[in-house]
Write a structure and sequence with these properties.
By secondary structure, the protein is an alpha+beta fold. Strands 1-2-3-4 form a 4-stranded antiparallel sheet, covered by helices on one side. The chain has 4 helices and 4 strands, in the order ααααββββ.
Length: about 150
């Protein structure tokens, strides 16, 4: 009769410990996952900008132009290769790629806006999330409000 109450509450204590472990594990996974998502959410788009700048540094202008969604077979209607070379080529302000500074990244719904500083001038590049195509950002912010 002495052993009858020896195990009283042991099962409840084990269940309580198991529930606490599960909750702490879920909380840790949520915090670590949220932190990783916050810091890596624009990784692909930012690496596309780095790839573009490295192609400019190698002076591989055709491949850099193709990152804008333009090729020899299907050139961009409004951004011809000649204009691209004026903007990014060897005679442009962006010829010294090591002097280009990448700074702010603004995360938008469908892409990012990467701010580049080239010889004191700010250039906003837009990278589409779905296609990873580069382009000039039409505005310096993601969703501008037009004042009427």
């Amino acid at each position: 009769m002495n052993n009858y109450l020896d195990n009283y509450g042991v099962v409840d204590a084990r269940r309580e410990k198991r529930i606490k472990r599960i909750l702490y594990t879920l909380l840790t996974i949520a915090v670590v996952g949220g932190t990783l998502w916050f810091f890596l959410r624009n990784y692909k788009e930012e690496s596309r900008v780095r790839e573009f700048l490295s192609l400019l540094e190698k002076q591989d202008y055709k491949t850099a132009y193709s990152l804008w969604g333009c090729t020899d077979a299907t050139p961009c209607r409004d951004y011809k290769m000649e204009q691209f070379l004026r903007d990014w080529g060897p005679q442009s302000d962006a010829a010294n790629v090591s002097a280009i500074q990448r700074s702010k990244v603004k995360s938008c719904d469908k892409g990012i806006i990467q701010l580049l500083t080239i010889k004191g001038q700010e250039v906003n590049l837009y990278v589409d999330r779905a296609t990873l195509v580069l382009g000039f950002a039409p505005w310096p912010v993601c969703s501008p409000r037009v004042k009427l």
